[in-house]
Amino acid sequence: MTQIRPASSEQPWAAPEEEPIVRIDKVTKTFGSTYAVDEISLNIHRGEFFSLLGASGCGKTTLLRMLGGFETPTSGRIYIDGQDVTDVPPYLRPINMMFQSYALFPHMNVAQNIAFGLKQERMPSALIRERVAEVMALVQIEKLATRKPHQLSGGQRQRVALARALAKQPKILLLDEPLGALDKKLREHTQFELVNIQERLGITFIIVTHDQEEAMTMSSRIALMHDGRIEQVDAPRRMYEFPATRYAASFIGSVNLFNGHVMSHDNDMVLIHSDEAGSDLLVHHSQPLNPGMEVTVAIRPEKIAVRDHHSEDPNSIHGVIQEIAYLGDVSIYHVELPSGKRVQFTQSNVLALAEQPLTWGQEVALTWNAYSCGVLTQ
Amino acid sequence: MLKRYPLLFALLFLGYAFLYLPIFSLIIYSFNESRLVTVWGGFSTKWYGELINNGPLLDAAWLSIKIAALNASIAVVLGTLAALTLVRLRGIRGHKSLGVMVTAPLVMPEIIIGLSLLLLFVAMEDLIGWPAGRGQTTILLAHVTFSMAYVTVIVQSRLAHMDTSIEEAALDLGARPVKVFFAITLPMIAPALAAGWLLAFTLSMDDLVIASFVSGPGSTTLPMVVYSSVRLGVSPQINALATIIIAVVSTAVLIAGVTMYRKELKAQRKS
């Protein structure tokens, strides 16, 4: 997974004294008896590229629509720039939204679509023309000004929708699955562009996506949602390396989970015995854990290394290769441990068409570093 | 093509003939010299001349057009409001029964609508003195009552297929709900409104049964005149009148089509 965003030293969310641009305070939304959003509290800071990530039906779109003013929370308040906007209608919020379907006005051409929001502000027409030309240049659609939406390709429509939402220079831009309808190549290209535009304009972007890769590449922070609640809020790198819950670990990337119980905890090192792994596991973990506690150890497939022969040290497992998936750049190996547990690990295919040293039915010994795995208690 | 599928083309031709042959024969017989509609007596335009001097028939035609146009306009407004209520206020108490009640006239026999409206108008006149007597007003009211149901159905299906996020986007961009309706919703459902208007116009133009119940002396619509004169033998003047109506309608359709086509071409060339 590549990350477009440079690991910036600026971390506005780490400065608690600063007023967040969006403050969601114990917001709940119910439809009938189902909780779409269940008492979520969340702060989003100025200039962030914030992702609401989750499987479909997790409540992320409902949360976004409440920010836009299209749904009213059942309880809880939403503040934008310190102002309570919970009951403010969408047309009075300093927020614009890019809809998943793009929602372009079919009877207006591209320039008219983009100018629509500015006309509502009663901006002088010379200024409107200038601003429309500006945003069209920003998203590189100058040549499409007189086209109607039905004459545009999916990628072009997406740009028009973005330009229209940016034209009013909102404080916050909401994007509902902005890349969902694009093909893979175009999606990757557009990810970079979105990040560039966001950094150039300094507008806070809040994006809803179900695609973990998309969230990882673009976001400054991700809120992972599950069943109307937030599982974890973190920067992409921390989210991947240090998932807080079993759900977070398995939703983002692939992961091997070993259930076990704590044997001892000294000097930030936890020793865990796992029958599933058939070995003792040593993990770096700074929060105190009591001996006997039931925990789960999470280890990413790419952190696992193959060693020459099995040893009885901690973090050493062995098993038989059952399946191999060749993906071009890497191969994924499925190994069955003596306990019956299946473990995945990946190997980069460094040599082209090399005689595969690992093959079906082969017995392998695997190991990993105590700092490359994590302990999950939830 | 023609050689490869002769049977298919024969069927196509038959289909067209079925649809348009009656109209063609009507047009041809409007230029008939003979007084008898079914016997060809040579070419003549004398029935057109007589038509112009036939005051009652022209009056009836003019009355029908007036009522039809007014009816279509009122029905479109009311039908659109009903459709908006049915589509947008879903989940409100009584929503389903409203839907059934609005569209009931679609399945109600005309004769029952006509009779019940007549009884209603008479009762209303007794109670509140309006509408005074039967005439244009009562025909118009009766026509609006049933043609509104057709407009509702047409507009409703259009609204139901419309992506609601388009209106939300307009709200999001700062337009108030009223502005959203006139700037976004209305242009998007315009084709349905036009179709509804035309259908309501045609329904009103066509109607004989209901109008016969609720019309009064001095307000005779075209279908009523035609129907009563047919009983005495069809005058070729009716053919002439029908030919004129067909000519006007097809010219209007042709002009609309050409204008739209040109507009489309222009838009394509521009970009």
Topology:
The complex is a heterodimer of chains A (378) and B (271).
Chain A: E1 22-31, E2 34-44, E3 49-53, H1 60-68, E4 75-80, E5 83-84, E6 95-98, H2 110-120, H3 125-138, H4 154-167, E7 172-176, H5 184-201, E8 204-209, H6 212-218, E9 221-226, E10 229-234, H7 236-241, H8 246-251, E11 256-266, E12 269-274, E13 279-284, E14 294-299, E15 305-307, E16 316-326, E17 330-336, E18 342-348, E19 363-367, E20 373-376
Parallel strand pairs in A: 3-8, 3-9, 6-7, 7-8
Antiparallel strand pairs in A: 1-2, 1-4, 4-5, 9-10, 11-12, 11-14, 12-13, 14-20, 15-19, 16-17, 16-19, 17-18
Chain B: H1 6-30, H2 46-53, H3 55-88, H4 95-103, H5 110-128, H6 136-160, H7 164-172, H8 177-206, H9 209-214, H10 222-230, H11 236-270
Number of helices of chain A: 8
Share in β-strands of chain A: 25-35%
Anisotropy-based shape of chain A: globular
Major sheet description of chain B = none
N→C terminal distance of chain A: 26 Å
Q: Per CATH, what is the topology of the largest domain in chain A?
A: Rossmann fold
Strand content of chain B: under 5%
CATH class bucket of the largest domain in chain B: Mainly Alpha
Which class of secondary structure composition applies to the elements of chain A? alpha+beta
Largest interface (C-beta under 8 Å): A-B, 30 and 21 residues
**In order across it, which strands form the biggest sheet of chain A?**
6-7-8-3-9-10
Number of helices of chain B: 11
Average pLDDT of chain A: 89
- Derived from helix and strand composition plus strand pairing, the structural class of chain B reads mainly alpha
By CATH reckoning, the class of the largest domain in chain A would read: Alpha Beta
Give unreliable regions of chain A as ranges.
none
Q: N-to-C SSE series of chain B?
A: HHHHHHHHHHH
